[in-house]
Amino acid sequence: MNVLYVYAHQEPKSFNSSMKDTALEAFEERGDSVKVSDLYAMNFDPVLDENDFKNRKYTDIFNPFLEQLHANKTDGFAPDIKAEMDKINWADMLIFQFPIYFTGFPAIMKGWIDRVFSPGFAFNPLTQSAYETGLLKGKKSMLVTTAGADKDWYSKGGMHGDIHELLKSITHCTLEFTGLEVLPTHVVYGASNLSEDDAKKELERYRELILSL
Amino acid sequence: MNVLYVYAHQEPKSFNSSMKDTALEAFEERGDSVKVSDLYAMNFDPVLDENDFKNRKYTDIFNPFLEQLHANKTDGFAPDIKAEMDKINWADMLIFQFPIYFTGFPAIMKGWIDRVFSPGFAFNPLTQSAYETGLLKGKKSMLVTTAGADKDWYSKGGMHGDIHELLKSITHCTLEFTGLEVLPTHVVYGASNLSEDDAKKELERYRELILSL
């Protein structure tokens, strides 16, 4: 299958980077094709603004929603957005790997969603295209995340609460919203304090997950 | 009281802008002092990276968490972050006003959190400073948001689900996490299709809320 691997970590020597490399090797072993959007390395701009559009429908007032709809009809997106859309169209599966920041995406990845998952491309309220009829239906997706805190913080009754409930804003209201099938989220807890041995075990656990997809 | 008003909308002629202006007038009527962080107008950079730091603790590997802790000990943040921290220190209340993007913050506001609410400033895992002992304890906060979709989408059993549950990643795991008291979230539903009359009513409803704080 074709995999788009959207990745957000600043440091090539990080544990997150090792996880990404582990996944890429496992996908190669499977014979899958992978394109990587390495957001920090690409210097991806996460801010949805007027620069997203090559031509504007309304120049007197900026309405992001209406401009996104218009750009989808007129091939009017800036090249950096168009490039990500092309990768999504090519992909059978989207993987989002990120260290969790305040129980959600780092801003650079949130902005990738804000700018790329636009109305007319990923969903469309005007044609009732969302969830069961979302425009990305037929593709799969998965979140892969590292949390600095331990699992008890992220469990029901813990300080933060159940991580899977907290991520519903992404898994349900973002990914399923566009019609994507969502595989169970893969979480590495206590990632800021992993021993070398535990890090190895986590990489192996992730490798096996990718091989089992 | 002193209010920091963190605001994220691109367009000065938008309904969101009218809401902000309504709030600022109401705060003036109350005799409160307000500082506004108008994130798009400031061209605020939401990406947490090496440029956040004037000096680095570790130059061989970039670990955002350790660098943020170090910067808080050494006055080592870039000026744009320092300026926001100064406003928070001055404020008794923080208000975040934004159009909801995929049931969460727009990236520009998420990045404000990622970069400004750093360990050592807003919380500190090393000293067990979070929630009841969060470093911003004593201050209040409130989310103010507009949703394009109608209320039934954002209710229990609706397509997205209960908006207050979806926002817990912000209200609980971000704001309460730092010790902030969180007032009930103010939501304007169906904001993309408000009639002129309904828009007026919503502005009046918001004005009354600010006056009642």
TrEMBL record, chains A, B:
Q: Does the keyword Oxidoreductase apply?
A: yes
Coiled coil ranges: none
Q: Which Gene3D superfamilies does this one have? A: 3.40.50.360
* E.C. number: 1.10.99.2
Q: Which residues form the Flavodoxin-like fold domain?
A: 1-208
GO MF terms listed in the record are: NAD(P)H dehydrogenase (quinone) activity
In its UniProt entry, what is this protein called? Ribosyldihydronicotinamide dehydrogenase (Quinone)
Q: Hey, what's the signal peptide range on this chain? A: none
**Which UniProt keywords are given for this protein, alphabetically ordered?**
Oxidoreductase
Q: Which InterPro entries match?
A: Flavodoxin_fold, Flavoprotein-like_sf, NAD(P)H_dehydrogenase_qn
One GO CC annotation: cytosol
| Organism classification | Archaea, Methanobacteriati, Methanobacteriota, Stenosarchaea group, Methanomicrobia
